[in-house]
Design a protein that fits this description.
Blueprint lengths: L7 H6 L7 E2 H17 L28 E2 L3 H4 L1 E6 L2 E6 L7 H14 L5 H9 L7 H11 L6 H24 L10 E2 L1 H10 L14 E2 L21 H11 L18 H4 L6 H12 L15 H12 L11 H4 L2 E2 L10 E2 L1 E4 H4 L4 H7 L2 E3 L7 E3 H14 L20 E4 L20 H4 L9 E4 L5 E2 L4 E2 L2 E2 L11 E4 L11 E2 L13 E3 L4 H11 L3 H6 L15
Parallel strand pairs: 18-19
Antiparallel strand pairs: 1-2, 3-4, 5-6, 7-8, 9-12, 10-11, 13-16, 13-17, 14-15
Helix pairs in contact: 2-4, 2-6, 4-7, 5-7, 8-9, 9-11, 9-16, 12-18
Length: 553
């Protein structure tokens, strides 16, 4: 599902400048890692000649096979789930890939190449009897490079693999946190801050312990502020921050500082591919929210019409507006030549009442800019400074993006994301702590305190989300499971509550948004959210929607 057609290969495999490892290494490891990758939710591009995972970049035509591969947008923004015997792939949807498992599999595979240790492996190479599995790996790599398997080339490759695998272990330690993130979650601000600011001073490192759900991409190109906290305004700055956070090269000179002074162009040299980022941003803008699949139970139009009244309100029927006042973005009329088209609503955390750790971990963080000479800054100011310097040296400096302000915020608020194809974006809330829409519309006391989540989930078309697997159930061993315990820090499922509690009829406060919604009305709202009616209300130029029967332009 998507609107990329012949540009699918670019969306799946264009390099944005991330540098995980040499491409030929990665491909040589696929035979031994593909099954574990599948368990971790890594999707495969079955028509790619190397069966490359979706979202892993490939070298440009004519580039050496040793060019780096890394993750691009599609890695985190392509999802799959099942319903019955059918698999559904959603382009632009929030991936359920288990990122920490993916990296763990890679590190284990690389370290396994130099067992029992590097000196023993080098000794076997000198004796012209290289140990397995290094021998098979090296044969594949050197054949791609059209190099002979000499003692010299094998010894160099062994040393490179040993050094690089150790660096990956170190990088993983930078993001150490008490608990793993689980499928479909990523601490973008935490890991990104470590990747950018760790090289400037090791004391800048902090646990990346506030993961959030990967959001969908539909319509994001038109938002005035992005990220769950509405922290970034410039669309390219958001992309730059994310690319650096997942492995683009920046501040590499800190490993071996130069003897003389450096100018800013040298300080801010990076591997970020700005032209590719602009191309990927354009491709993302072409992704349309998916329509409710024909294979699912048909939408009940009468029930959905009732849900529309509840969602938007209907004064003639005396029905209050339950959802639209927050979740329908306002179209900006006087936005200027290059301004955003949609003003998203930001809700103070003290009002919506959802878990605050994600906001606190960013707003309370400070950074020593060290050799950049800016002293100690807030994470917000440091991030704005670095991305502004990078943008000034990019191709964006000569395009319309130069006219867009690069402003960052660290306000205690969460975005009320427009509900575009929200049915395809479970689990819910910013931290993914609620498994389906029915529980999101229910009192907190009726929500699961723990549920099992995997990268391959079965869709529940009634409650809209994933079929719930209890934490104490016997879990199938054909995939990786994560027990999502809402008692863990950052995993709270409180807030965004409609319940018959004292004060429920007054202003929203401390997570209580209104009085309880009867179960039948919850199902009506959910039925409405299966339709494409919100797409045509929110997205400029969205296709016509007929889900409710009438013709809507």
């Amino acid at each position: 599902m998507g609107k990329l057609d012949q540009d699918h290969p670019r969306w799946y495999h264009a390099s944005a400048g991330t540098q995980l490892m040499p491409y030929d290494w990665f491909v040589a490891l696929l035979d031994s890692t593909s099954k574990e990758f599948e368990k971790a939710g890594i999707l495969v591009d079955s028509i790619h000649p190397d069966r490359l995972p979706v979202g892993m970049s490939e070298p440009q035509a004519g580039a050496p096979s040793s060019s780096p591969t890394g993750m691009n947008c599609a890695f985190c923004h392509t999802t799959e789930f099942t319903y019955g015997n059918k698999v559904f792939r959603i382009e632009g949807g929030p991936s359920l890939q288990y990122n920490q498992r993916f990296l763990g599999v890679l590190i284990k595979a690389l370290r396994g190449l130099v067992l029992p240790d590097l000196p023993t492996l080098l000794k076997s190479i000198q004796a012209e009897r290289p140990l397995e599995p290094f021998k098979t790996f090296a044969t594949k790599v050197l054949e791609r490079r059209q190099e002979g398997s000499s003692i010299s080339s094998l010894s160099k490759l062994a040393g490179d693999v040993d050094a690089y695998s150790r660096s990956l272990v170190t990088r993983g330690a930078m993001d150490s946190s008490p608990e793993w993130w689980g499928p479909g979650r990523f601490d973008a601000l935490g890991r990104g801050g470590n990747t950018v600011f760790g090289p400037l001073n090791p004391d800048n490192l902090r646990p990346a312990n506030a993961p959030v759900s990967i959001p969908p991409l539909w319509g994001v190109w038109a938002y005035d502020w992005v990220q769950w906290s509405g922290s970034i305004q410039h669309p390219l700055a958001r992309n730059v921050a994310q690319v650096i956070g997942v492995g683009a090269n920046l501040f590499a000179w800190t490993k071996k500082p130069p003897l003389g002074p450096m100018d800013d162009d040298q300080k801010f040299r990076s591997s970020v591919d700005f032209k590719a980022l602009e191309e990927l941003e354009g491709l993302a803008g072409r992704l349309q929210p998916p329509r409710w699949p024909e294979e699912f139970p048909a939408i009940d139009r009468s029930l959905a019409a009732r849900g529309r009244d509840l969602y938007h309100g209907n004064k003639a029927k005396g029905i209050p507006n339950l959802c639209a006042h927050c979740h329908v973005a306002r179209h900006l009329e006087n936005r200027g030549e290059y301004g955003p088209g949609l003003q998203v609503t930001m809700i103070p955390q003290k009002e919506v009442g959802t878990d605050p750790l994600y906001l606190e971990s960013f707003s309370r963080r400070t950074v020593d800019t060290g050799p950049l000479g800016r002293g100690r800054l807030s994470a917000k100011d440091a991030s704005q400074y670095v991305t502004t310097e990078l943008l000034a040296r990019s191709s964006a400096a000569q395009t319309e993006d130069a006219a867009k302000p690069n402003e960052w915020r660290d306000w205690p608020q969460y975005i009320a994301r427009p509900h575009l194809a929200v049915w395809a974006t479970a689990p819910f809330l910013h931290n993914g702590s609620v498994p389906n829409l029915y529980e999101l519309l229910s009192p907190v006391s009726e929500r699961h305190r723990c549920f099992a989540l995997s990268p391959r989930m079965e869709f529940d078309p009634k409650h809209v989300g994933y079929s719930i697997t209890e934490c104490n159930a016997e879990l199938p061993q054909d995939r990786v499971w994560f027990k999502f315990d809402t008692a863990w820090p950052g995993n709270g499922n409180r807030g965004h509550e409609f319940a018959d509690l004292p004060g429920c009829g007054g202003p929203a406060e401390n997570g209580l948004l209104g009085c309880g919604i009867p179960p039948a009305d919850r199902l009506a709202i959910i039925e409405y959210l299966k339709t494409c009616d919100l797409d045509r209300r929110v997205i400029p130029g969205a296709p016509a929607c007929h889900d409710l029967g009438e013709v809507t332009p």
